[in-house]
Specification:
Number of helices: 8
Largest sheet: none
Radius of gyration: 17 Å
Helix content: over 70%
Distance between the termini: 16 Å
Length: 200
């Protein structure tokens, strides 16, 4: 939901400023494809496990994907707040709200696989800390180099990563117990929920 209703459209709109016309749309698509290929590479690097251990793998992949996703979000919050404090606070609140279900997608598989709430919390904390790290990086290092082209490509790539992991890992895992209808309804609920977090 985040990828298709927020990240990819945002990437396209930013890239159209840097590269007007078809070139901007093509660049966003290429960035999304590159992100999906990167996610496929990550998947190959994390060993495949069976049973409950397979959920530890899913949680680890979700953590890595959200790390990559949260870094540019931290950069975006910093840049927005740096130019307009009110806009930055609004964006920060919206991102904080939609990080709740994202954190659940990391914590639940880890907790189910290990039975340890502490490990689930640690994995989720690592993925969440990427946002303040992204903001710090933007403040200390990236500010002179960040432009519409870089941000647009980042948004497109992160959208591709998240769509790949959702389709290849999260959705099949949600349906493997035979509750296909419940899994499908949960997917639609999630897709509808994520845009609503911005309204709140």
């Amino acid at each position: 939901g985040v990828s298709l209703s927020e990240l990819l459209p945002e990437g396209i709109s930013v890239l159209l400023i840097a590269m007007p016309g078809a070139a901007g749309i093509f660049a966003a698509g290429a960035a999304a494809a590159a992100g999906a290929l990167f996610a496929a590479f990550l998947e190959l690097m994390v060993p495949r496990e069976q049973g409950r251990s397979g959920y530890r793998r899913l949680g680890l992949l979700s953590m890595i994907v959200l790390l990559v996703h949260n870094l540019p979000e931290g950069v975006a919050v910093f840049l927005s707040g740096n130019s307009d404090l009110h806009a930055g606070l609004v964006l920060c609140a919206a991102i904080a709200l939609h990080n709740i279900p994202e954190g659940i997608s990391v914590a639940m598989p880890i907790w189910y696989a290990t039975g340890s709430r502490r490990k689930a919390f640690q994995y989720t904390l690592i993925s969440g800390l990427a946002e303040p790290v992204g903001a710090l990086l933007a403040f200390l290092v990236l500010r002179p180099f960040i432009n519409d082209l870089v941000l647009g490509l980042l948004f497109g790539a992160v959208a591709g990563i998240m769509v790949y992991i959702s389709v290849e890992e999260l959705i099949p895992s949600s349906r493997q117990y035979g509750y296909d209808r419940a899994g499908l309804l949960a997917i639609f609920a999630g897709v509808c929920l994520m845009p609503l977090t911005h309204l709140l």
